[in-house]
Amino acid sequence: MLKRYDLRDGGIVSTEDADCPILVFVNPDKEEIAYLTTTYQLDDHTLNSALDPDEQSRIEFEDNHFALIFKRPRNYSSEEQFLFKVSSIGIFLFKDKMIVLISEDVPLFDGRQAYKVTSLHDVLLKIFYRSIAHFIQHLRVISMISDEIEHKVNESMENKYLLHMFTLEKSLVYYLNAVNSNAMVIEKLKNASSRIGFTPENIELVDDILIENTQCLKLTEIYTNIISSMMDARASIVNNNLGTLMKTLNLLTIGIMVPTFVVSAFSMNVAIPFKDNPFAFIIILGLSATSLVSFLLFFKWKKW
Prior knowledge:
Blueprint: E1 2-8, E2 11-14, E3 22-26, H1 30-39, H2 44-50, E4 58-61, E5 66-73, E6 86-93, E7 98-102, H3 120-153, H4 160-191, H5 193-196, H6 200-265, H7 280-302
Parallel strand pairs: 3-7
Antiparallel strand pairs: 1-2, 1-3, 4-5, 5-6, 6-7
Helix pairs in contact: 3-4, 3-6, 4-6, 6-7
């Protein structure tokens, strides 16, 4: 699917003009990939890398353009069962044309406009900045989900909540690798600013993006360490909850068995004391209650 965008009045607007400077291909098919390789001489391997979620972020310089591949978080789906994934995005920047390749239809140019977009270099940095902001938003969601699951773990004996925690931990590993990979690309962008043609304003924005990405990296490391270090403790909590339940069940079982034994002893077909006593039934019930109370007091005294 092809989307076209133009630069107008310091912003990015959708257009149907075939000569627009920004082309966004969403999950391109074979015909669109053939069109890109034929018309713009894009490298086929680089095109496929831009759509590969396992590809590392990198920059490649060609004769008439340069290619930038970096990571961004995928849109979360409830079917993923708390697994947050990452995807790759490829940007091919020519002198007067930008081609963007993404694997899913996501809004690339939404969000607050912090600066005017007057050139394709501005568009490139805006997409990169939005990717980092998207990572931070997902990290906040992961933190809230982790707190909610932790609360359920403290009260539950089911393994499914622990499995959810393992899934979140796996997601953070993906995010940590992706954000760290983006950091290396930002450094390369800064070092190759003169070759790319960045203005002093663009270089300042690259510095801001580097700071934001560093903060995102630190935040990801903190959440990863917290979840990883607490996994054993949460597993112990589940085991402790299960042990407490078994203790309660055993207490109830023994508490029922003691008075049952007393009643069963007086139900045998043998001679028993006070069998002709008119209050025999009440006496037996009293002995059963006394045995139960004695049992409970003994447990309390032993602090079991």
